[in-house]
What does this fold into?
Amino acid sequence: MSTWQNWAGLETATPVRVEHPADEAAVVALVRRAARTGARVKVVGSGHSFSAVAAPEDTLVRPDRLSGILAVDRAAGTVEVLAGTPLHVLGDDLARLGLSLSNLGDIDAQTLAGAISTGTHGTGGHGRGLAGLATQVVGLRLVTGDGTVLRATPDHHADVLDHARLGLGALGVLTAVTLAVEPAFRLSAVEEVVGWDTMLGGMAERLAAHDHVDTYWFPGTDRCLLRISDRVPAGGPDPSPVPSARERLVADELLAYGALGVATALTARVPRLAGPVNRVVGRLAGGRAYTDTSHRVLTSTRRVRFREMEHGVPMAAAAEALAAVRAIADRHRVGFPVEVRSAGAEDVPLSPAYGRETCYVAVHVHRSVDHAPYFAEVETALAALDGRPHWGKVHRRQAADLAPAYPRFADFLALRDRLDPQRMFANAYLRRVLGP
Ligand SMILES: Cc1cc2nc3c(=O)[nH]c(=O)nc-3n(C[C@H](O)[C@H](O)[C@H](O)COP(=O)(O)OP(=O)(O)OC[C@H]3O[C@@H](n4cnc5c(N)ncnc54)[C@H](O)[C@@H]3O)c2cc1C
It folds into this structure.
């Protein structure tokens, strides 16, 4: 019997059977079979959710044979993609076509359907607005609880499109997703280490002026690493040399390990080391400048395993939220950075950025560290500021307190009743966050 485990190692499950459907017809067949026997079905992506959102109970469906681009419509600026396509494969395939997604998260190891289903997002300065991948979805194909295939577009089953682009795997099996794409573009990134007050004081101006702003604050210090990326005008010269893959990897890994945090914490305690340590920090992370294809600049490799929780709070509450998290992280002597990103107001019903400009605050610990006391305090503080949790990351929120946080929660539940009345796609996580 094969065991399923998520990337962080926090969740495991032993499904009764494992399926690898080769096409949509095979998905329909397995769903109909499960409907007859009353079995539950769970499609997994790449297992990169920290929460148990993807944990299978009876049948585990691996979408590894549902990968690749099905159709390109250059006039409409869309591509139809098989739902199990890993984002890194999609990024390379789109680049070969001279196309690109508008935005991505920190990594590209996830499958397309897995990523959109939990609200995976990157960071968007308000100049560029949207950060969530689901906002780029303009069509999808969904196999519902009785094996019906729904082709949802803005004109046909629009309500299904609206909700199933961030559907938590609760509404059916996505077999294909149509995405809005744009001509390939390059991003020029600059990284800089600044103090907390500079980070916070200049936040609004920075977001207004730039395409993507990503901030890492190192607990126990005053130091923040700002990563600002802007589009390079087509045909323009590279503002800086492209870094080697190895250079990127070393710097990204240092960031992931929290080594920069350790270094900067040292300078806080032994101020005479500040000069040499900051010089090393500056050389390794801050002070880097590079230009590359958009998906290579936006995403990094994360080989160090960690645990993560993230909430989106209204942008107006960002300063208060960050001050609260700073005090909690310092008290817990956390070694991993706190990541701060932003999104414009989105119209995806279950997106944490639904209806409001959002500041995302993500906290991390090494996978070997008990996250519970730190995450619980942060969650309480951010929930009090109207924070909404990332569905794919660790959190303890439940249906009763999530419903008031999402104005269209009841619509989602009504659609779930219609598309999956038998709860074929449910698991313990969905029963907690959506109800029975
Ligand atoms: C190192 C790391 C970095 C990350 N960085 C970011 C980031 O920058 N921004 C961010 O927002 N998140 C980030 N995440 C979280 C991650 O993007 C999400 O948890 C995402 O959902 C994982 O995708 P997956 O393919 O692994 O899907 P899984 O975690 O395996 O599944 C997620 C959900 O999708 C459903 N699903 C999968 N395929 C289908 C399908 N075909 N039809 C219907 N439902 C389906 C599953 O049932 C489940 O409900 C990160 C996670 C890790 C581990």
